[in-house]
C-alpha cells in the first residue's frame, strides 16, 4: 500500500535547539563543528537553520524532498534485518560541502520549493506501518541538520514498533550527538577518507569529529553501526590510506563493524574524475579482510563475493545476495551459523525479508 494521508501544512519557523549567544551578540549554532555564528536573518552553512530575532529555527521541519520504500541493504545496512523494507526520506541542505556529492541536487538545494511532500512525525510512522516497513531511514541528505524533526519522527516510529536508521556523515557536536542517537536503532556513517587534508579540501570539514562519532556509537550506545567509504580514484584509494583506515576500525571499533567500500561515479564538482574500477574495490576489500575485519562489502558494483556475508569463524557463506536480492539465507533464528554455531554480529529476525530490489515512491502528506 502506498496511499496518501491527510494533507498537512508544515510550520516554516519551527524552534530549533543547540545554540548559545556568542560574546559579540551573534547566535552560535552548536549542532555541528561548523559553529556558525549568525546575525538576525542569517542561515547557517547547512542553509536550513536560521536565526530569526532571538530564536533559532529549523526551516525544513515537516517538509521532505520525497518518500520512498527501499531495501535496507541500499542504505547500506547488511546486518540490520536483511531483506526488510525501509521507508526513506530526506529534506534539503547539508552541513558538509562534498565536491563529489551524489545527491547534490538535494543536499545543495537552496530552493525550498523542492520540498514537495510534507508530513508530521505521526504521518510518517503510520505510513511505515501501513506499508509494512520494518524501519524508517533518515537519508538522501544528512539528518544531522534536521535533528529535531528526525528525533520526533523516531519517537513516533518507536511508539508503533518501527525501527529508525540514520544515514549520515557523522559531523556533529557531542550534546546533539547524544540526544540524536538515543533515538536511533541503526546508523550507517560515511567515513569519507582517512585524511584530514581530504576532508578539508573536498568536504569543507574535518576528520576527527567523524571519528569521535564512530567511537561514541560503538563504545557508548547500542545503535547497530555500519560504515561506508566511497573510494575516489586518486584521492582516497591508495594502499596506505586504505590500510590506515582499516587498522583504525579494527583497533578502535573492533572486527565486527561492517565496512562497505563503495564505487564513485563522476558527479557534481568532480565530473572529470573517472568512476572507481571494480578492481579497486576488490583490492580494498581484500586488504580489509587481511587486516582482520570480519565483514567487508563492495557497493555500487555487481560483485557476488562483495555482496555476500560469511561466517567469521568457519567462513561459510551465510547470506548470498544478488545486488539487493537475497538468494540464500542460512542463519538460524538466533543469528547463528548452522555449520559451526558462531553468532553473527547484527540484528536479525527468525526469517529474512523478501523485499528485494524494489524502489517504491510514496506520497504521504502533500
Task: Describe this entry's structure for a reader.
It is a single chain. With 366 residues, the chain is an alpha/beta fold. It folds into three domains: 14-58, no CATH class; 63-308, Aldolase class I (TIM Barrel); 309-351, no CATH class. Helix content is 24%, strand content 22%. It is built from nine helices and 20 strands. The strands form five sheets. It has a nine-stranded mixed beta sheet with strand order 16-15-14-13-12-11-9-8-20. Helix 4 links the parallel strand 12 (163-168) and strand 13. Helix 2 packs across helix 3 (147-159). Residues 1-6 have low confidence and may be disordered.
- Specify the CATH class of the largest domain: Alpha Beta
Architecture (CATH level 2) name of the largest domain: Alpha-Beta Barrel
Integer count of domains = 3
Strand content: 15-25%
At the fourth CATH level, what is the homologous superfamily of the largest domain?
A: Aldolase class I
CATH fold description of the largest domain:
TIM Barrel
Radius of gyration: 20 Å
Q: Helix and strand succession?
A: EEEEEEEEEHEHEHEHEHHEHEHEHEEEE
Kindly state the mean pLDDT as a whole number? 93
Task: Based on Cα principal axes, name the global outline.
Answer: globular
**What order do the strands of the largest sheet run in, or round the barrel if closed?**
16-15-14-13-12-11-9-8-20
CA-to-CA gap between the ends?
17 Å
Give the tally of β-strands.
20
**Helix proportion of residues, in percent?**
10-25%
Low-confidence residue ranges:
1-6
Largest sheet: 9 strands, mixed
Number of helices: 9
